Amino acid sequence: MTAHTLRWLSHPTRFLFFTGKGGVGKTSLSTATAIHLADAGQRVLLVSTDAASNLDEMLGVALSNHPVQVPGVAGLWLVNIDPDEAAQAYRHRVVQQMGANATDAERATVVEQLSGACTTEIASFDEFSSLLAEGAHAYDHVVLDTAPSGHTLRLLSLPKAWSGFLAGNDKGASCLGPHSGLKMQEARFNQALAALSNPALTSVILVARAETSALAEAARTSEELRSLGLSQQRLIVNGVFHASVPDDAVAHALEAQGQYALAHMPDVLRGLPRDDVPLRAFDSVGLPALRGLLRDTPSALPTTPCHDDTPELPHIAALVDELAAQDHGLIMVMGKGGVGKTTVAALLALGLLHKGKTVHLSTTDPAAHLATTLVDQVPGLEISRIDPKVETQKYIDKIMAARGPSLDDKERALLLEDLRSPCTEEVAVFHAFSHIVAQARSGFVVLDTAPTGHSLLLMDAAGAYHRQMLSAFDKKSGSSVNVVTPLMRLQDPAYTRIVLVTLPEVTPVSQAAALQEDLRRAHIEPFAWVMNRSVLAAHTHDPLLQARLLGEQRQMARMADGLSKRLFVIPFLTEPPVGIAALKQVLKA
After folding, report:
1. Would you name the residues annotated as active-site residues?
2. Which of 36, 183, 318, 327 shows the greatest Cβ crowding within 10 Å of its Cβ?
3. pLDDT band (50, 70, 90) for residue 173
């Protein structure tokens, strides 16, 4: 299908839902779209459902869970669904519903029930539902900037999951407190589902880069959204690059990779209306850049080349050497979606295996890419994935086997109904995560994590479990001194090494810095940073890429100036690092 530019801005539906693989530019494009509509005289609400949103940096306005007008854009308001604030408000509403006769002990029990990650998730969706069902009447358009695909699909599946769970069920949902606290939201959930499924009201805009993995994930997302009833879809390919000089191997490799990916995109995407947005010479931060993102005029390029006087950074192979100084440990690879966490995790696992270490490579990412990155099996390397559906069924089977024999048929049916609530998945995934963390006592475990916001929910679950364990041991024995919880292992620098992955761009670096601060608040200190796909390290003289190198140098300076204690680099590669041979070649560079 022929691609056009800006067609999604013609006759837009009321709700515009931007989603896609992390790092493809959802936030930039959704924000630029909201600004464009507001500049045209519409009243627009821009909503972020991403726990790791950087809209505050892009727009220069503090994020809030209440609409805030954006300075410099008449008619544009911004709201961020903050998971912690949403969970706190949800807990307050549920406790208030208990009435005056509830005892302090009963209230404390409910608050404890409402302390887990599944409560945070449903509370965030509650805020999201209220916008779709009743809170958007004051706006002509609502533009939704979502979390990366896997987390977004989880969010969008909640209305159907919870509506089905609530139908005819008057007990259970214990991890969300009293059933009445959840039941009160049923009508709102159903309204949200109706709005999302109405093609006259809602359009889903799948954002991708001209990259095979991003387009493959967009295709998977498209099919899953159709199964949820969201059929009004279109595709935006962001950052399309065309080389402008004949003798630049890096530039022509970058263009060729993009053209190959577009020529071989999945069939499900070929049937969608498509727009291409060209690669710009600037980062999409600030109103001038965001307005310029959707202009048809080409980017202004520098008249003089960028001089590379940046010090050489150590290669990722040097990071493998440092990690291999130990015989075992947990290596968690974290960062914003789309920065190359899976590639880095695979490189570290292969490097450690080559040095004779015992290695287990696993992933918690709901949109895992380990299989497509490695392609083939590696002798001696254990590979696994924490699959939410598989882990949930295992957890249900375990609980039913333990508690079922002592219950009658009616009680077993009620227990099973309770376990079929969507929040069970969060508990099951955490149990699997804890099991893998423990395996690092006898060898290396390299964990490729989900995009940042989802990983933080997992950390939060570790913290909640940590508090529950200590409390239980204190009550039982009067001492918790011998308890070792998953959080304690994550906090132990001799046991856990956190590797933050970023791209040399404003948004990924800021996201990594924010993640580092969140980890430090949990008393977890990152071990190293990896800067992936450095064009500066690859050496190019294409004018557009040269223009972007100036921004890359600024980000390298940020990281070197105290953000990272150890900083390693992977240069942009003229061939994608897919498959064992290609990954090993990267380690030799």
Report:
1. 23, 25-28, 50, 507
2. 36
3. very low
